[in-house]
Design a protein that fits this description.
mainly alpha, 16 helices
Length: 411
């Protein structure tokens, strides 16, 4: 009897271990699937939110069509445009292209309209999602309820709202290099091969701060958000980037998955920044934002910035001192660029369009800035002041200041 019981005990241990391993692997697969599906759902959520707000704008359906058909404010072409007849002068229509020998020839577009519309919809959806998630968790709802309840808004729209009508952003060799570079940077943010390690020296303290905040969101009862280093103190940090991480990580909270999540967020945000800066057309501008700063040729790349002050170099690269360690800054700059793209890109490519014909752009920019203080307050506050000044001056010139209500009310 003793040997039999012993044999049974020995044989059951591996079975329990296999079951635990299978369960962990299943949750990890679910975690990865949730990461990618969440991007799609947030794009749909962004479209739904803008559609709901557009009900307060007269004749907003046409403007919504510009977005959802990938036309936006860049002069993208629709089937209606292609069917316009030739003008008497034979020149054609400047907004839709020219007719030569009875055939329509469109203008070359260096940057597709959908490059911007999808990205803007994503950030509107993401900020709306995180705002609602904060409210739901603060009233005591569990993670599994709070994380999926914001998507109930999708039920307010037709089933077609779950179908992406926008075409995917156009790709290029420059984007391929950009994507590969950020994929490499993303996997170096921190590794878990032998403990928690990071390649970036300026990230030693910031990484532990961010991991601690994410862990407190997932494991602790800290909503309304509390400062994880001082229990009971309210959190005064722009925490949306870490709440975004926690909203995905809680399904399978392992260090390996968190490392993968950091890389995923890095690639998604910086790929979005590339299209917001129209990197396919202005090739060097995204790289300038990523690698701006100084001390590249004076010290080793990634050197501790504090040690350079005594050596006469009180500045370092943005990548090593801002973008990598200060995670909220990359989300803040992305939201800021999304808001500015709505105001400036359409004005630059189609200067004949006045604010009276662009209420939906004003609404989108105002909504982004209104939801952005918890993404990064300083960047978005300065952006809000700048856009307010620009719009007030332009409204005074066009004698249409009342139109600015679409920007200032949501902001």
């Amino acid at each position: 009897m003793y040997s039999r019981k012993r044999a049974c005990a020995v044989t059951t241990l591996p079975i329990d271990s296999v079951k635990g391993q299978l369960g962990e692997n299943l949750l990890s697969y679910l975690f990865v699937l949730h990461m990618f599906v969440s991007v799609y759902l947030q794009v749909c959520l962004g479209r739904t939110v803008l559609s709901l707000f557009s009900r307060f704008i007269p004749d907003a359906n046409e403007n919504l069509g510009f977005w959802f058909a990938g036309r936006y404010a860049l002069g993208g072409k629709t089937d209606t445009d292609r069917q316009k007849p030739q003008s008497r002068s034979g020149v054609g229509h400047p907004e839709s292209g020219n007719f030569v020998d009875g055939q329509y020839i469109s203008r070359p577009q260096e940057t597709s309209a959908s490059d911007l519309s999808l990205v803007v919809l994503f950030f509107v959806g993401l900020l709306t999602y995180l705002s609602l998630l904060t409210v739901f968790l603060s009233i005591g709802l569990p993670w599994i309820v709070g994380c999926f309840l914001p998507y109930v808004l999708l039920l307010l729209q037709k089933k077609q709202s779950l179908i992406l009508k926008e075409s995917f952003p156009s790709l290029s060799l420059n984007f391929a290099l950009w994507f590969f570079a950020h994929l490499c940077i993303g996997v170096t943010l921190f590794q878990t091969v032998s403990g928690v390690e990071t390649f970036w020296r300026n990230n030693y303290g910031d990484l532990t701060f961010h991991i601690g905040m994410i862990s407190s969101f997932v494991y602790g009862d800290v909503f309304p958000p509390e400062y994880h280093l001082y229990a009971g103190s309210s959190l005064s940090y722009p925490f949306f980037i870490n709440l975004w991480s926690a909203s995905l990580w809680w399904i399978a909270p392992t260090w390996k998955n968190l490392s993968l999540l950091f890389a995923f967020q890095w690639v998604v945000v910086w790929s979005s920044i590339y299209f917001l800066l129209r990197g396919n057309r202005f090739v060097f501008i995204p790289w300038a934002l990523l690698l701006g700063g100084g001390a590249y040729f004076f010290e080793n790349f990634g050197h501790n910035s504090g040690e350079l002050i005594d050596k006469g170099f009180p500045w370092t690269s943005f990548l090593t001192t801002v973008w990598v360690p200060q995670r909220s800054a990359m989300l803040g700059i992305a939201v800021s660029l999304a808001a500015m793209s709505l105001i400036f890109v359409g004005s630059h490519d189609k200067p004949e369009r006045t604010m009276s014909s662009r209420p939906f752009d004003l609404l989108g920019a105002g909504l982004l800035l209104g939801l952005s203080p918890l993404a990064h307050f300083h960047i978005c506050f300065i952006t809000g002041l700048f856009l307010s000044l620009v719009l007030v001056l332009r409204g005074a010139i066009e004698r249409d200041l009342f139109r600015l209500r679409y920007f200032f009310l949501p902001a």
